[in-house]
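Bumping with the actual sequence this time:
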Amino acid sequence: FVPWYLQVESPVPPQGNGMSARQSIPDLPEHPPALLQALLERISVELGMDDLSLLDLRGIDPPPALGSNLLMIVGTARSDKHLHFSADKLCRWLRTEYKLTPFADGLLGRQELKLKLRRRAKKSRLLSAVGAKQTADTELDEGIRTGWICVNVGRVDGGDLPKTEGQLDREKQVVGFGTGTTGTTIVVQLLTEEKRGEVELERLWAAVLKKSRKEQEAILE
């Protein structure tokens, strides 16, 4: 059962043989983890996210704070309600189908969202009762309009890139216990259209990747 405050119309399947540009699924990178294709299809088809992009950040060295061997998916939600509904469903699907433990930063729990919606409705009624002028949504959002949820799927099997000769040489010089970390970290960034245009995640991460590659090339010279 889905409460009324989280009910969102299911995305309508595209007519014809092909998807629209906004609903297209990005091509897989080389050496993808097994989960990636199913995850992209889930986000696009089942959750109805638009304008999906896939950032292959596995080449960043040193690894970013989000995790090593990082793959990042970015998608646009139609509204804040659609954003929270989709992030919640995605986490539940990952836990149920793949026994993963995703963490969604910025996601309001169902009870928390319900409480905030009630507070906003109550405040709106009180303002109307005293004859106050219409208040902007941003002043009455009660923390509902986050605009951005980061779902850290966690580490999944597969997706390791072949190691370069330089990486293999450095590993031979390391003396110690344990083995290197394997697998891939997947992060799903879900944003409203307004928030996505504001933060420009693709441009920011492209700059980070470019800088990392230049530094690695300088080391090899």
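The tokens above came from a reply further down the thread. The first strand starts at residue 50 and ends at 57.
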